[in-house]
Amino acid sequence: LDLERFMIVATSDFNMGAMENKGLNIFNTKYVLASEATATDTDFANIESVVGHEYFHNWTGNRVTCRDWFQLSLKEGLTVFRDQEFSMDLAGSPSARAVKRIEDVRVLRTAQFPEDAGPMAHPVRPDSYVEINNFYTVTIYEKGAEVVRMQHNLVGRDGFAKGMKLYFERHDGHAVTCDDFVQAIADANPHSPLAQHLPQFKRWYSQAGTPRVRATGHYDAATRCYALTLSQSCAPTPGQSEKLPFVIPVELGLIDAATGAALPLHLSGEEPSGSTSRVVVLTGASQTLTFTNVDAEPVPSLLRAFSAPVVLDIDYSDAQLLTLLAHDTDAFNRWEAGQRLALRFAINAIAGSAQPTSASGQFGHQILPTEFVDAMRAVLRNPLLDAAFKELVLTLPSETYIAEQLDVVDPQRIHAVREAMREQLALSLQADWEWAWEQNQDTGGYSPDPVSSGRRALSGLALHMLCIAAQRTGDAVWPGKAYQRFKVAGNMTDRFNALTALVASGSELATPALARFHALFKDEPLVIDKWFALQAGAPDRGGNVLPAVRQLMQHPDFSLKNPNRARSVIFSYCSANPGAFHRSDAAGYVFWSDRVMELDAINPQVAARLARALDRWKKLAEPWRTAAREAIARVAAKPDLSNDVREVVTRALAD
Q1: What is the DSSP track for 392-449?
Q2: Are 326 and 260 in contact (CB under 8 A)?
Q3: How far apart are CA 32 and CA 113, in angstroms?
């Protein structure tokens, strides 16, 4: 750091997470204040990441800065990549590193992919804007980081370090462009695929949308060859009807279907290297790779570590996915295999609309087949896997992510199916959840390190599942244990996990626990934000969440003027609780439009973020679709809207 001291100021009223002003960084209190009594493991990890991010900005943002606002991702995408790598390096073990990668990809898929497919789609380097505040987006930040990560994948870790060194030497003290950055990485690695395909690679900066990579495999037993064909396409986005092919690094391996062993990769026409994983570069609309000396049809493991921000289309059988889940050496793809299976069963259940479902979301038969439940048990009991990794594998895909995979979205049916799947896992693995709780509930003196945090995450999930099972069976033991844990916990993570288990399972003990929590922490604003968010994000039971949200807004501790507090209630409901927000009586949409207009009068930036909760309204089934459009039109008709909100709603309504 080229300063004698690194100064920060923390403020509780701030729209952003933090800001890297040279010499005096500004932080939202949420991302800098923590103690084990008031902050969770997630808070500690976020603080470490955000402090790192703003510190790294001293070079990637301040000493080398942006020529103009269109280059915003030059500093933000690059610095997000740097803070992601920093957090992964802190994690240590390969499966702990994979946990961070999985968490980042979940954000990309549930927030950025929908942005790419919606009315606010824009390139990583936008070519126009009405209001620059609206371009502090997941595309600029998270997709921008993925574009940097692809450069890292194309030149290798050492090559990327050389490129960064050249970038700083060449541009220290300058205001530059995204092109200048990628040019420096390529110039430092003249023989790399990045340098060879540089003009084409730059399309990642100028073309919006999420490419789809289609993979098909064919095994020829006579020649012992396996041919893998990869092809790419990208749907039109606003203002860009035609898309040229991207440069897509695909890290891949082959798994023996019978033994689960990783196979050496012998590409036809190349010298055998004995490697079981490699990066191939897709540059054309389609290309075929032929692997030789393959004794039986393998299971392809593609897009390892999520080597490019694309959607992978491949027709895996259930058996192939179970093989990857059990044996893939790439931890990301093990998780991905479980997610693909769960998603498949969810979509089949949603499509099978003849299934009887009651108001409580009970289905006439089990959604998850025995093989899947057994595979989940095997992961949970596996002594070699990191606890944090197990928690991710055993967490079902979110309702938002399931919705993105469907052409027409019935939010209530998605909610009912996911709740039924979760209940089935809770009941089928009850003994295993009890074992996991006993093994992981005690982590000793508090430390937010990855191993301890992982064990608390897994014990929290186990307690959550045991409370769900207890609600179904009428058992009072586990809700009682959760309430006791809530009362005596020595840190906020365990306390809040127990409170969440009671609230999410609908236990009658949730009410006294919530009251006790508020009494304990009424003088800690960041903790009360959690209290508000938990209630606004709770599973909907007979339409109970919206009245609860209205009541929370009348609470003496609620203030619409504080961005953290507004987000904790209104965003937790409108943006993060689809089962409760998408009501068939449209009351959720009316509430949303009222809040957007109310916020716009005092904080247009926050209002514009909230306005984006209905970006994907065109995918909704009726009656939600018409009701959502009416709510957006109602906001758009307000005469004195800010530019921030007007841009969002106008683009949402555009054909």
Answers
A1: HHTSPPPHHHHHHT-SSB-HHHHHHHHHHHHHHHHHHTHHHHHHHHHHHS---S----
A2: yes
A3: 29
Phi and psi of 218, rounded to 5°? -140, 125
Tokens, residue 131: 């209001």
Place of tokens 């009887």: 356
Please report, rounded to a whole number, the percentage of residues in the chain having pLDDT higher than 70: 98
> 301, 294, 349: which is closest to 325 by C-alpha?
301
What size, in residues, is the chain?
655
How far apart (Å, rounded) are the C-alpha atoms in residues 134 and 113?
17
- Which residues of the chain are modeled with pLDDT < 70? 353-365, 655
CA proximity to 326, closest of 376, 263, 397, 275 = 376
Supply φ then ψ for residue 302, to 5 degrees: -115, 150
Which residue, 202, 221, 361, is CA-closest to 297?
A: 221
User: Nearest 5 degrees, angle CA 146-CA 148-CA 152?
Assistant: 105
Using only the alpha carbons of the chain, give its radius of gyration: 25
Q: Are 240 and 209 in contact (CB under 8 A)?
A: yes
Neighbours of 174 (CB within 10 A): 11
Query: Letter for the amino acid at 320?
Result: Q
- Token reading at 621: 């089934």
Kindly report the pTM of this predicted structure. Answer: 0.95
> Which of 202, 206, 243 lies closest to 122, judged by CA?
206
Tens-place pLDDT, residues 334-368? 999 999 999 999 999 999 855 555 434 556 668 99
Choose the catalytic residue: 4, 20, 48, 54: 54
Which tens digit of pLDDT belongs to each residue from 571-602? Answer: 999 999 999 999 999 999 999 999 999 999 99
3-state secondary structure of 35: coil
Token pair, residue 442, equals 């005690």
Q: Yes or no: say if 417 and 367 are a contact pair by the CB < 8 Å rule.
A: yes
Q: Which tokens hold the place of 645?
A: 């909100």
Residue 465 identity (one-letter amino acid): M
- Counting Cα atoms < 13 Å in the Cβ hemisphere of 513 gives 29
> Could you confirm whether 404 is annotated as catalytic?
no
Q: Which residues of 394-419 are buried (b: 16+ CB within 10 A; e: fewer)?
A: bbbbbbbbbbbebeebbbbbbbbbbb
